[in-house]
C-alpha cells in the first residue's frame, strides 16, 4: 500500500521536472527568436548609434558568454528572485511583479473562496433537487453567464452599478491618503464590484459541473444500497454523495484558477485596477521583454502550483487515484 | 412465534420508460414463514431483482407498484417513513446483486460493514468492528485485518460478494434477501457463504435469488419465475428433482451437469394473452392460448395446463 507521504513526494518531484521545463522554455524562446535581444530592447537605432555601448551592454547582461553559461546564470538569478530589469518602467521586474501580484491575488483569492463555497452549496442542492425553483433559475443562468465573454459581463456590471446607479466607484484600487480600518473598508468598497463579477464567473463554471456530478453520484448503485440498509437521506447525502463529489470538486477548483487568472487580467483592465493584468497589458504594449517573460513565468507558476495542490488533495481524497498513480509509477 | 415473515399478494410492477410500459412483475404471490428458506430462480430479466427491491419499497421513484406486501403483518406500502427506515436493514437485509458497485468507492470495506452493524444493532464502534472482523474471517476473507482496511477497488468480485454477505450474516435481521449471492465464488467459499446465509433462516427467513439450482436445492422451497410470474413453487426436492413445468424442466436441462441444453429462444409465434411461455414451450397445446393459473399439483403449485395430477 502506498502511504500518503510518498505519494505527495512523488507528485512534488514530478512538478519540479515540469517547472524546470517551463523555466528552460522561458529561457530559450526569446533566445531563438530572430533578432538581437538588445536591439529588441533598445530599438533598431541603437545598433547604428554606438556599437561600443552595445558591446558594453552585452558584457553587462552576460550575452557574450555561451548559451549554457547564460542558462546557469539565468537559473542562478531566478533563485535570487532576479527576473531582470524593466527599462520601460525603470524598475526590477521582480519588484513590479510582487507588487502587482498582491493586487491580483486580492481579486482572485476572495473570488475563488466565495465562488467555491457558493457553488458547492447551490450545485449540490440543485443536483439533489432537480427541477425545483432554484435549480430552474440557477442552471440556465449559469449556462448563460458561462458563455458570456468576461469583458461583456464586466462592462454590464460597471455601467449598471457604478455608472447609472452609482453604488460603486468607477474604478481604481482605493482612495489615497487613508490608513488602518478606513483603508480596509475603502479597498473593500473599490474591489466589491470586480470581485463580485469574478465570483459570478467562478460560480457559473463550478455550479454546472457540481450539479451534474451530484446527480450522477445520486444515481449510483451504492446510494440505492445505502437506502436499502435503512440510512436516512441526510446520512446518505453527507456520508456518500458529498464525500464522493469532493474529488471532482477539487479538480474543478484547480481548473478554475486558470479561468479566474484570465478573468482577472481582463477585469483589471476594465476597472482600471493595478495588477498582473494591467502589468502584462503594458508590457505587451511597450514590448518590454523581460517584463513579459517574468509575468508569464509567474502566472505559469501560479497555475502549476494550484494544479500541484489539487493533484495532492485529489489523491488524498480518492484512494483509486492514489493507486493508479502508483501503478503507472511501477510500470515505468 | 411461527408466523408469517413475508407475504406478497398479487404484486404488479410496471416501469414507465419514455412512453412505453415495461411490466416486470405480473401478479406474484409469495409467503415466507418463520424459519423458512426459499430459493428464487429464473432467467435474467424475469423480475427477480425487481421483486427484491419492491419488498423494500425501493422502486417508488421509478415504477408503479400495485398489490400488497406484508412484513410480519405490517403493510410495507402503508407504513410511515420512519418505520420503513427501521425495517430496511434491521428487519429486512438485502444482499444486493452487483458487489462491484454496491460499496462506496471512497470508504474502506470493513468500515462500511461495521457502520451497518453498528447502526442496526446499536452497539459501539469497537464492538461493531470486532463483530465484522469475526464475520469476515468466518466467510474466509483472509488475512482479515488487511481485508478490513481495504478499499473496494482493491478487492475481487468474490471478496466483495462475501463482504456484502457479511453485512447480512453479522446482523440478526428477520428476513435476508440475497440476490445471486454465490456468483463469482469458488466451490469452497460458495459452501461457506451458503451455510452462513442458511443459518440466518434459523431465527428469521431467507429468500435467495440464484441461477444455480444446485445451491437452490439447499433451501427448503424453490420458486421458479418466468416473465414476472411464478410458474412453479414447492419443496426444492420436488421442484428440482421432479420438475413438472416445461420451463423448469428446460432450466434443469440447461444445467452444466445435466447436458447444458439451452431452452430454445422461440419455437412458435405467440398470439399473446395466453401462457407467457407459449412461444418457447415444446409441450404447448390449444389450451395454452389461455392464461393458466397456479394450481396445486403433485405437491407443488404449477402454472401449466398440461400437467395432470
Ligand atoms: N429501473 C428500471 N427501469 C426500467 N425497467 C427495469 C428497471 N429495472 C428492471 N427493469 C426491467 O424489469 C425486468 C426484470 O429485471 P430484473 O428484476 O433485474 O431481472 P432479474 O430476474 O435478472 O433480476 C427486466 O425486463 C428489466 O428490463
Ligand atoms: Mg437480477
Summarize the SSE layout with pairings.
The complex is a heterodimer of chains A (332) and B (309).
Chain A: H1 4-32, H2 37-42, H3 45-49, H4 51-61, H5 67-79, E1 85-86, E2 91-92, H6 93-128, H7 133-147, H8 150-164, H9 180-218, H10 221-228, H11 233-270, H12 276-285, H13 289-317, H14 319-331
Antiparallel strand pairs in A: 1-2
Helix pairs in contact in A: 1-13, 6-7, 6-9, 6-11, 7-9, 8-9, 8-11, 9-11, 11-12, 11-13, 12-13, 13-14
Chain B: E1 4-17, E2 20-33, E3 37-41, H1 48-55, E4 63-71, E5 74-75, H2 81-91, E6 92-95, H3 99-102, H4 109-121, H5 125-138, H6 144-148, H7 157-169, E7 175-179, H8 187-200, E8 205-209, H9 213-216, E9 221-226, E10 229-235, H10 236-241, H11 246-253, E11 295-297, E12 300-302
Parallel strand pairs in B: 3-8, 3-9, 6-7, 7-8
Antiparallel strand pairs in B: 1-2, 1-4, 4-5, 9-10, 10-12, 11-12
Helix pairs in contact in B: 4-5, 4-7, 7-8
Adenosine-5'-diphosphate binds at residues 15, 17, 22, 24, 42, 44-50, 62 of chain B.
Short characterization:
The complex is a heterodimer of chains A (332) and B (309). By secondary structure, chain A is mainly α.
Domain count of chain A, please report it. Answer: 2
Report the span from N to C terminus of chain A. 18 Å
Mean of residue pLDDT of chain B?
Answer: 93
Please trace the helix and strand order of chain A, writing H or E for each element: HHHHHEEHHHHHHHHH
- Main β-sheet of chain A: number of strands, strand sense, barrel status? 2 strands, antiparallel
Mean pLDDT of chain A: 84
Strand portion of chain B, in percent?
A: 15-25%
Q: What's the alpha carbon Rg of chain A, rounded to whole Å?
A: 25 Å
Q: In CATH's first tier, which class of the largest domain in chain A applies?
A: Mainly Alpha
Helix content bin of chain B: 25-40%
Shape type of chain A = flat
| CATH class identity of chain B | Alpha Beta
Radius of gyration of chain B equals 20 Å
Separate helix tally of chain B: 11
Query: What would CATH call the homologous superfamily of chain B?
Result: P-loop containing nucleotide triphosphate hydrolases
Low-confidence runs of chain B (pLDDT<50, min 5 residues)?
none
What structural class do you assign from the helix and strand content of chain A? mainly alpha
- Tally of separate helices of chain A: 14
Amino acid at each position: 500500500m502506498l502511504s500518503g507521504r510518498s505519494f505527495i513526494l512523488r507528485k512534488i518531484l514530478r512538478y519540479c521536472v515540469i517547472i524546470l521545463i517551463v523555466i528552460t522554455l522561458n529561457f530559450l524562446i526569446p533566445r531563438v527568436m530572430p533578432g538581437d535581444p538588445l536591439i529588441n530592447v533598445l530599438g533598431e537605432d541603437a545598433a547604428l548609434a554606438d556599437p561600443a555601448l552595445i558591446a558594453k551592454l552585452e558584457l553587462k547582461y552576460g550575452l557574450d558568454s555561451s548559451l549554457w553559461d547564460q542558462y546557469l546564470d539565468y537559473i542562478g538569478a531566478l533563485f535570487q528572485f532576479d527576473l531582470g530589469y524593466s527599462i520601460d518602467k525603470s524598475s526590477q521586474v521582480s519588484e513590479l511583479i510582487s507588487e502587482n501580484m498582491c493586487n491580483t491575488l486580492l481579486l482572485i483569492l476572495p473570488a475563488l473562496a466565495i465562488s467555491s463555497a457558493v457553488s458547492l452549496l447551490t450545485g449540490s442542492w440543485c443536483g439533489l433537487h432537480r427541477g425545483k425553483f432554484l435549480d430552474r433559475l440557477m442552471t440556465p443562468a449559469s449556462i448563460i453567464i458561462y458563455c458570456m465573454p468576461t469583458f461583456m459581463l464586466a462592462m454590464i456590471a460597471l455601467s449598471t452599478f457604478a455608472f447609472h446607479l452609482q453604488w460603486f466607484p468607477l474604478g481604481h484600487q482605493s482612495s489615497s491618503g487613508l490608513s488602518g480600518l478606513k483603508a480596509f473598508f475603502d479597498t473593500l468598497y473599490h474591489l466589491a464590484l470586480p470581485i463580485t463579477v469574478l465570483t459570478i464567473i467562478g460560480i457559473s463554471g463550478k455550479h454546472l459541473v457540481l450539479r451534474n456530478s451530484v446527480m450522477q453520484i445520486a444515481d449510483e448503485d451504492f446510494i440505492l444500497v445505502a437506502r436499502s440498509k435503512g440510512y436516512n437521506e441526510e446520512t446518505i447525502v453527507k456520508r456518500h454523495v458529498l464525500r464522493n463529489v469532493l474529488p471532482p470538486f477539487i479538480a474543478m477548483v484547480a481548473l478554475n484558477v486558470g479561468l479566474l487568472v484570465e478573468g482577472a487580467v481582463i477585469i483589471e483592465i476594465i476597472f482600471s485596477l493595478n495588477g498582473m493584468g494591467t502589468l502584462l497589458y503594458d508590457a505587451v504594449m511597450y514590448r518590454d521583454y523581460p517584463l513579459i517573460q517574468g509575468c508569464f513565468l509567474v502566472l505559469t507558476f501560479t497555475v502549476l502550483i494550484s494544479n500541484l495542490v489539487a493533484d495532492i488533495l485529489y489523491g488524498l481524497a480518492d484512494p483509486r487515484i492514489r493507486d493508479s498513480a502508483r501503478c503507472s509509477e511501477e510500470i515505468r | 412465534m411461527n408466523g408469517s415473515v413475508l407475504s406478497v399478494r398479487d404484486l404488479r410492477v410496471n416501469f414507465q420508460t419514455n412512453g412505453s410500459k415495461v411490466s416486470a412483475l405480473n401478479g406474484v404471490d409469495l409467503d415466507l414463514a418463520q424459519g423458512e428458506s426459499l430459493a428464487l430462480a429464473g432467467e435474467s430479466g424475469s423480475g427477480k431483482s425487481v421483486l427484491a427491491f419492491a419488498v423494500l419499497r425501493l422502486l417508488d421513484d421509478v415504477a408503479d407498484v400495485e398489490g400488497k406486501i406484508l412484513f410480519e403483518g405490517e403493510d410495507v406500502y402503508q407504513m410511515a417513513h420512519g418505520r420503513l427506515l427501521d425495517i430496511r436493514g434491521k428487519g429486512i437485509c438485502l444482499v444486493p446483486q452487483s458487489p462491484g458497485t454496491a460499496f462506496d468507492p471512497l470508504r474502506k470495506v470493513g468500515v462500511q460493514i461495521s457502520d451497518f452493524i453498528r447502526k442496526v444493532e446499536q452497539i459501539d464502534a469497537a464492538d461493531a468492528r470486532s463483530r465484522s472482523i469475526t464475520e469476515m474471517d468466518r466467510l474466509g476473507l483472509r488475512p482479515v485485518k488487511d481485508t478490513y482496511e481495504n478499499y473496494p477497488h482493491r478487492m475481487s468480485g468474490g471478496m466483495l460478494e462475501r463482504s456484502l454477505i457479511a453485512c447480512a450474516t453479522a446482523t440478526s435481521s428477520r428476513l435476508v434477501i440475497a440476490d445471486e449471492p454465490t456468483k463469482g465464488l469458488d466451490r469452497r467459499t460458495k459452501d461457506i457463504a451458503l451455510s452462513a446465509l442458511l443459518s440466518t433462516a434459523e431465527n428469521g427467513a431467507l429468500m435467495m435469488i440464484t441461477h444455480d439450482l444446485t445451491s437452490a436445492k439447499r433451501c427448503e422451497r424453490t420458486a421458479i419465475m418466468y416473465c414476472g410470474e411464478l410458474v412453479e413453487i414447492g419443496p426444492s426436492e420436488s421442484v428440482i428433482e421432479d420438475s413438472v413445468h416445461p420451463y423448469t424442466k428446460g432450466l434443469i436441462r440447461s444445467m452444466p451437469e445435466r447436458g447444458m441444453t439451452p431452452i430454445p429462444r422461440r419455437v412458435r409465434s405467440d398470439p399473446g394473452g395466453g401462457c407467457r411461455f407459449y412461444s418457447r414451450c415444446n409441450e404447448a397445446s390449444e389450451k395454452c392460448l389461455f392464461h393458466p393459473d397456479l394450481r396445486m399439483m403433485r405437491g407443488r403449485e404449477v402454472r401449466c395446463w398440461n400437467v395432470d395430477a
